[in-house]
Amino acid sequence: MTVDIIIYHNPDCGTSRNTLALIRNAGIEPHVIEYLKTPPSRAMLENLIARAGMTPRDLLREKGTPYAELDLGNPALDDGALLDAMMAHPILINRPLVASPLGVRLCRPSEKVLDILPTPQRGAFAKEDGEQVVDADGGRVDTRQEVANG
Question: Does residue 107 carry a catalytic annotation?
């Protein structure tokens, strides 16, 4: 099955790497856009935010960015100002952002991508830290249940 999926990816981010691996575990080879090298246009970013049902503020990344220096926590800043900052400093765009025919999601945690993949997982999957998120049958593992039953 040919499926058009785009991941706005940062290879230095573990969550982004796990999300990419989950897409591939569904038998899909996505379009990988390293957004720090090739940032989306402002119109594309606005479209992705709208399709994800988010606001620009929801997509802002604080950790490891100039968020504080730019005073982006200031509630007086409107969406346009936040988008301007993301265009000037793509590191402010949180990741990984995934677009599929079933929607757009900020995949934090990475298993959120499972909600928008049109094909099932093809086998077990564990994150880089060893957390099992997909079982051998390709089903989602409910980690909360395992913790509760501990």
Answer: no
